[in-house]
Amino acid sequence: MIIQGDCLIKLKEIDDESIDLIYLDPPFYTQKKQSLISRDNSKEYFFDDAWENVESYKKYIQDRLVECKRVLKNTGSLFLHCDRTASHHLRLALDEVFDSINFQSEIIWSYKRWSNSKKGLLNSHQTIYFYSKSPEFKFNKIFESYSPTTNIDQIFQKRVRDENGKTKYKKSDDGESELMEQKMGVPLSDVWEIPYLNPKATERVGYPTQKPVILLEKIIHLVTDKGDIVLDPFCGSGTTLVAASLLERKYIGIDISKDAIELTKTRLKNPMKSESALLKNGKEAYMNQDQKVLEILNEIDAIPVQRNKGIDGFLKIKNTMRPVPIKIQREKETLEIAKDLLLKASKKNGFQLGILVKTNNTQTNSLFKAIDTPKDNLMIIDNLKNLPKIKALLEHNLALL
Amino acid sequence: MIIQGDCLIKLKEIDDESIDLIYLDPPFYTQKKQSLISRDNSKEYFFDDAWENVESYKKYIQDRLVECKRVLKNTGSLFLHCDRTASHHLRLALDEVFDSINFQSEIIWSYKRWSNSKKGLLNSHQTIYFYSKSPEFKFNKIFESYSPTTNIDQIFQKRVRDENGKTKYKKSDDGESELMEQKMGVPLSDVWEIPYLNPKATERVGYPTQKPVILLEKIIHLVTDKGDIVLDPFCGSGTTLVAASLLERKYIGIDISKDAIELTKTRLKNPMKSESALLKNGKEAYMNQDQKVLEILNEIDAIPVQRNKGIDGFLKIKNTMRPVPIKIQREKETLEIAKDLLLKASKKNGFQLGILVKTNNTQTNSLFKAIDTPKDNLMIIDNLKNLPKIKALLEHNLALL
DNA sequence: TCCAGAGATGAATCCACCC
DNA sequence: GGGGTGGATTCATCTCTGG
What we know:
Two copies of one chain form a homodimer. The first copy, chain A, is α/β, with parallel strands linked by helices.
């Protein structure tokens, strides 16, 4: 069900204790009127976020939270997606409405983001507060993989206490250890690393502040079963409803914007999500460099980059605006091939000078093999110890280029 | 300098605007007296955390924050390490003392921890608030490596805005992309993944709530230079001072506990930190399974494990207490070798049944190759599609074992 | 029924020891 | 000596029990 209108009013039309999960992504606390333009420039979405002060913002949310609590089943839960500038005020509101005893988790949605160059740390997480209506809330345990460093042999062993009360692993008389029962993995943590919705994701419908479907799926999985009812009072482009629909939950969405409602309706006709290759395969799948290359790059204080065939990293060189790409020769790579790869990548990107580190053991005695072919602007180094000298040279000369 | 006493009183003896960085890790908001015993049972540390209510706790902190602000230089910063049950109250206190305009970051210290079986998400982060005294705060930009998925071709290209205000990559007339100036990597994010101080770390001095030196080093690097003054009004075992000393900053530590002061003094005679192998080498160094194996394990919903030669994971099987290890045959591994490895590992750990997945293409037609040698309790599967049937079989039969 | 204290838990690391 | 692995130790734990 999708309803247009102010959720405070529309919520009042919903029965007491009828909802299993409420997810809210309310407007942010900004002091100016927002207007954000959709991707294809066809639509403009207005956010009437002109709050007098943070207290009036808090009251606005709190009024709606009270209604949310009413419609929530006794086993139900609420997730509030917070604005980073006002998250503490929102948690205060939650404490007042739900009581701090029902605070379950501060979920951190963390993601990597393109940098902006502001002074300070790069803001790359958002906070979601998880409150239950009562201690009897429904909760489905979700398990994750063990850390690769975990000693599995050991955690399957039973333990006993010694005379000082310290625990030890239990051994039978013949020195054998006793087995514990089956384990399902590690309980899900409260820090969720989920990629920010890729600008080009097929999932994108052009709505600002759109959230990834996977994020909502995770929440829905956690506290509902099939057939349960999910409510989103600020449904926006309908991500929550899409996720609910994909997981066979019933859903109710409310939004004040007519455009958002339209968008949600069309989106729900064909609910879909984009598969994140990053999440599915893990970061490791993208690591096409072996440990050795990373070590070398680290040693020479270069910036490693991963997704480029001819370039392994960039040198940090002062006094120049030119990026200097560097490539480390692979074990099974002839110097010629390595050279070609670097040159090609360099040329494509317009870099003026590339540095190739020779790693096989047929060494020459020169400081570096000299600029191989001046027109190519390629330098080959066969002894890393010389690199500082070369860097100094470059810092001196590149400014002239 | 290390001072014993209530920091509210001792702070008053410090000059105005004389400190570059203040880090506070105040007592937590618990409603009962805590007493925590040190590792070797030799000492007991008391925390007088008997706050009437959260308001009195907030006031306790706020009083001290006022003094902190006074002693801070105009370019100085303050980092407050928060109790998760009261972080919102603490941020309110910070807003009141420092003004919300000087809020810089909510730093998430995220880590993996041994779990405990509570209902809900596994709590695995802590929050540190970063406020500056003024907008003119000192800040050293720190850069990290690019994410492996980053397409570096793009990050060096200049961008322009099109007529609609959207950014595009700038192309010169001949279609070549124009280069940006050199980049140093991705600016440090506000989510810090730092391993929890390990139970066996040599860095440990037996003080409860001890923080990793690396965490403090990161903070100190961020907002101070060599020779600057770092202050910790709740210095505890002196981690902040150790980090400051290692980075050649001056330091002042205050703590109310005599024992803590003693501990700090001896610790500072030989300041050290433990190298985290995990941080140094990265998680990837511990991964000994290739992508293909992980994919198969994922497909059959098994729990992957890394640190074990003969075992790649464990099956999730209901109705049994017995862990069922599984191994995937490697490409360059004969069936015999794979079998031996699994058997050996199984036997060592006392598992009653192991499952080996055959992956080379000489297929048989049987459902599974049958229990190879019944006394070994080994099953060989050569068609993954049959696994669900086998799991059902197991769920039925294993209970009998 | 509530609270205090005992007892069980459980995975992540580093360390020590082994070959 | 170096790579592998068994073990120790931890929790501002969590749950259960008994008064």
